[in-house]
Write a structure and sequence with these properties.
The protein is of the alpha+beta class. It has 14 helices and 24 strands.
Length: 625
Amino acid sequence: MWIPSKFRKLANALRRTLYPLGNAPRPCPVEFDGSFEATQNLFFRLTGDLHRKCWDWRRGYFKIGRSLQRGPGGARADTLELAARSFIGVAYFCLRDDCPDWRDRYLETIKKGTDPNSKYYWGRIESTAMLVENASLIVGLLLEPKNFWERLTSQERKNFISYIAECSQKSFYESNWLWFKVLHLLFLEEAAGIPQEKEICGLLDTLGSFYDGEGWYNDGRKEQERRYDHYNAWAMHYYGLLFCRLADHRYADCKEELKRRAREFYKTYDYFFSASGLPLFWGRSLIYRFGMLGFFALYIAEGLASLEELQTIKQKVVSTLRKFLAEDILDADGLLNLGCFAPSAALLEPYSGDGSPYWAFKFFAFFLLPSEHPYWRALPRSSNDQDMKVIRSLGVTSVSDGDRHRFFLNGGLNSRLYTWKYGKFAYSNVFFQTVDPKYADNSFTFRSQGRFVSRDTLHDFSAGPGGSWRGRWGVSPIKGLEARSTLIPLPDGYVLVCEMECDARVEYLFCGFKIPGKAVSRGSSEKKLRLSSGSFISSLGIFHKDDGRYFCRTVDRRRAMDSRKSSLPVYRSFLKPGVTTLLFCVQASDHGNVTPVDLELRDDLLIFRERTLERVLKKNGSYYV
């Protein structure tokens, strides 16, 4: 049943109030070392708890329980999402072992969901949710037809084909969603013998138009949307490599190109993990957690990985899984909760629902590898020991600060729809983001009509020497405000020079890196606010002449990506009409100290002192080089 949006919002607000009652989150008690046996144990734990809680014996169908949020399609769509996203894990596992009870439950669910005479028929869902979830069902059925597809009767197969044919005629967003349409058409070709080559090749060409080089796709071509994130791993390349596996020889040229792009992606995606294997966190849908690792499984399964890469992939898998399993990712019933490291309403997308976190089951694509595959015996090995890597197609510079901490400086990502997810100057794998429109880490926020807004317009950007980025940007709610910024990397942070031009007086905040816990101010001065909490340090230096003030903001756990109470250095001031030059030095460390840096603006020169080194950057137009 369709429910007006205002009532959905009220219902979701009530869910968020009631959800924590008697539902304390907890970690996943699985020891994970990356072996085949440990991967099996994790699969059994997560899938077993899901079936104990969500399988309705009386109805012979899945059910959903307490949630932070219902998706726009309501309970019917959320149930399909939960069933389909967990099904892909079972389909991968059935390639290596049999689990008849779980297999039969999914078959029963598929029969009822695609029978137009059933009350559970998915074709009546009043949203586009089924277009996404059908992809997982299709992949699971095509991977090994004898496990699922051939167990359906002739009529049940006709029902499924008719349902997929009907869905394939619907409108798919011009984004990663086009892969879902490719899979719909591929299924009709493989299972029903209906030729779809022309349509599939056209869709692959459109997806190719999103490709910007070095392995990275933008998620569509909308104005002011430069969205590059983990969707490249858990959607663009994941489905690209699955297509290579499932499609026949007629698409040989397309498959070769998809594999070439996957190889390019592996080379640069490596720099979004620290040397110890921890991933960076930015962009949308972080509730999918370790789903990005599914790309590495398919990369290996398609024969693209060298023996050395098997070791570095093992390091990423082990470190990422251990990180997540140690966090509060489960609810009281053992289900994956809606959050990244703990339940977090602020982190959810409008389309998030009960089953959304189970895209993490894409990780179980590692069951494509037989138990005797060399990957399972490979020893974890650190990679990307290069301190800095410039990725020009994205407009970012990846910087390593030791074995654990890696961050990237953002010169080229932007979004009007998801400003804080793509518009910050830096993203880290240790110092997690704030989810707050006012106190946004590594960002400017500006007061406009009683609320705070941030950058949502990127006019142009270009790479400078030494990994620096120059950009001209604006804030659409504030007409007449334009900024020209130079972003210069440091080993543990960055220097930001901003020339702001505006027509009126505007209040602004600028925030540095957030650190966990209640911080104390140590070593602060007139120019610098330095926060310390255990071995974590966050430093925000202000080197321009201004009447502003800095302070420490305690971040409520509901406004933190990691759902922990934490501390944030903040600078508050005002822009005056005309041109104002701002100069900040932002640093963070998880090992107790940051590099001493002193800056000075003198006429058209930026004097840069770092330990015994002095550099002079000269102004060229509005930027420093």
